[in-house]
Amino acid sequence: MFSKLAKFLSPSIRQKQGFTxxxxxxxxxxxxxxxxxxxxxxxxxxxxxxxxxxxxxxxNIRTTEEAMYADFQEYGTSxxxxxxxxxxxxxxxxxxxxxxxxRTSSTPQSIALSPSVIAYVTGLAGATVNTDYAARTxxxxxxxxxxxxxxxxxxxxxxxxxxxxxxxSEVSATTGITVNTATADSYVSPWTQMQ
Length: 195
What we know:
This protein has helices spanning about 1-10, 15, 20-70, 170; strands at about 75-80, 90-95, 95-100, 110, 115-120, 135-140, 145-150, 155-160, 175-180, 185, 190-195. With about 200 residues, it is an alpha+beta fold. It has one domain (about 20-195). A hairpin with a 5-residue loop joins strand 7 (about 145-150) and strand 8. It starts with a helix and ends with a strand.
C-alpha cells in the first residue's frame, strides 16, 4: 500500500527528463525568426526618428528666421559662436546654432539643435542685407537632408548621397540649388517638395 502511495507522490517521469532536444530547437528557431523580422524594423524606426529630429530643427530655424525678418527686415546666417557677423555661413553639428545679421551681431538669435543634427543657413552670396535665406539640416545617422528657403513656405527633402551617415559637407553642399539673385534659391532635382 505504501508503495502505491510513494509512486503517486513521486514526480512523474516527464518531469525527471526535462525538455527534449527537438523541443528546444523548435523554440530557438521560433525566436530566431522573430529576431530576423524585428531587428531590421528597429533600425528603420531609429532612422525615421533621426530624420524627424532634423526636420523639427529645420522648422525651428525657419520660425527663428521669420521672427528675425519681422524684427530687423533681414534674415540671419548660421554661426557656431557669437562671433562678429561676416556673412559667411558655418555648418553646425548638434550644438547651439547662432543666427545673426549686421544689425544683430551683438545679440544673435540662438537655436539649440538636437544631438547629432547638422545645420547650415546661408543668405544670398555677396548681399549686404540678407533678404533671403536657404537652410538645410540632416542627422548624422539619418538618410534624408531637409531644406527650406525664404521665398517659399514649402519644405524640401532629398536622400543623402551616401547611405548610413550624413556628413557636414553633404548638408552644406549646393547640389540641386539654383541661386537666382533676383528672386530666391530654387530647389530642383534631386530635391522633392514636401508640402
